[in-house]
Design a protein that fits this description.
149 residues; mainly alpha; 5 helices
């Protein structure tokens, strides 16, 4: 049942995004993030004050991760262009930058989970971690299901 609701919600968001004006990629990300926040708040069952504190930290963290993902995508695209051109050199710098991004993301995640200790219990933090993993999996599966239909 939950999977059906998730598929329906994803379909709804995707249809709205495709028909929306403006830059669809950004609106798509915003809608998915809003959906994730709502689902997380349902799972965590926080009071109003802690909900606001959690959402502020989660939104900040999500935006920072998105920026890192965009930078990662840029670097990989540059490497792909070099490979297609047949360049033989210049990859070491890009790989080092990519590794630095991975390190930065790890540190951001570590700090985020440390900050959550001020708001959430250990069990709630575990719920966030599991939710993140499951949401990503279910989202990918929902998109695949939509593509098959």
């Amino acid at each position: 049942m939950k999977k059906a609701i998730l598929i329906f919600a994803m379909t709804f968001f995707l249809v709205n995004v495709l028909s929306a004006q403006g830059f669809p990629g950004q609106r798509w990300r915003e809608r998915i993030l809003e959906f994730k926040k709502v689902r997380l708040l349902e799972i965590l069952k926080l009071d109003e004050q802690n909900s606001v504190r959690f959402l502020n930290k989660y939104t900040k963290f999500s935006n920072e991760v998105e920026q890192l993902e965009l930078e990662r995508e840029r670097l990989v695209n540059e490497m792909e262009i070099k490979l297609k051109r047949g360049d033989k050199e210049g990859y070491d710098k890009s790989i080092q930058e990519l590794l630095e991004l991975e390190k930065k993301e790890y540190e951001m995640r570590l700090n985020f989970y440390k900050e959550l200790r001020d708001i959430l219990t250990e069990q709630q933090i575990a719920q966030v971690v599991v939710f993140e993993r499951n949401f990503r999996r279910e989202f990918i599966n929902a998109i695949r299901d939509i593509q098959r239909e």
